[in-house]
Amino acid sequence: MAAVNLANSPITQVSQTPVQTNLQPQLLTRLLLDLRGKRFSVDRETIMNLPESVLLCLFPNGLVLSRQSAALSDGGDNDDYEELYGVDFDPECFSYVLSFFRNASEVFYGTSTIPGLLAAQQHLVDSGSPTSDFGPSASQNPLLTKQAIIVLREELEYFAIPPKDGKASTNVNGIANDALLDLKKKCGDYLLNKRNIFTALQRNVSKENNIAEQHLIDMLCMSGFNREDEWGYRAMEPMRCCISSIALVLLKTGIVHSTSNGEKQVTVDYAQMGTAQKLLLFWRKPARKCWWDGLDVNLADPGEPEKTVKLWARRVWTLELSLV
């Protein structure tokens, strides 16, 4: 049998030309989002800074930050191509969130021409906290180096029990007639105009004497909200008996910036800082609360006889802290 020269065998030969492989998909630097017909081009860092609860609404099936097409990951001419993601989320609400986060970031970190609050309080980071309660390093107290934002959302579903006059009803197939549709619209308008954040929860506190809910209101009002605050954005969801609301406020960390004799000064209220640190429990960990709220509402137009409707609302609150 003739000996086989393994060195020249095509089975054992190794190509001297390296094969270009791309096992790691290319990360997108920007995302092009289509929110109910309105498009947004948002960079990856901005997306990742959004509250977890908002991200779950934007991307209920998970957020993919790598290119989905292999043809776009080959280092070719399409590297700047933006893939379009369809998102079922209110575009005006999204604009409100983006604007608030952008403004908060600029005030805290500054711009290319104007220094921000972080520059004025940098000595707190460099020297550490004067007391041992908060630890000497920024990693132990991220409120020294990050802009903290309280995120409060409400999802409200409402159900109207029409009066017994029989005008508002459904047919044999369960389809609402015009009178019932008009009733639902009026109920939605009534709730939409109730913009005060804490009225419904305070009503529930008074009804149930729930101390925990009262503590929640007190904590939020100590940390950045006021008791008479209104929702920052509130709107009906299309084709649903549902109202979505969101309110964003800067967390009161206890770090106070003031000006005296033309010089900027920074002081720390450590009691307020302690309260603020309790809210770190909600950082990237949204907490939810659900309750039913029932009201008797008069939906009669001016000059009409009274038309009382029992209106039930199922409210779901989501509380979260974001660090930008």
Short structural summary:
This protein is an alpha+beta fold and 324 residues long. The protein has helices at 44-49, 52-58, 91-109, 117-120, 122-127, 178-192, 199-208, 211-223, 270-278, and strands at residues 30-35, 38-43, 84-87, 148-161, 233-236, 242-250, 255-260, 263-268, 287-298, 308-323.
Describe this structure in words.
The chain is α+β, with helices and mostly antiparallel strands. It folds into two domains: 28-68 and 81-89, no CATH class; 107-323, no CATH class. The chain has helices at 44-49, 52-58, 91-109, 117-120, 122-127, 178-192, 199-208, 211-223, 270-278, and strands spanning 30-35, 38-43, 84-87, 148-161, 233-236, 242-250, 255-260, 263-268, 287-298, 308-323. Strand 1 and strand 2 form a beta hairpin. Helix 7 (199-208) runs antiparallel to helix 8. The N and C termini lie far apart (75 Å). Residues 9-15, 69-77 and 129-136 have low confidence and may be disordered.
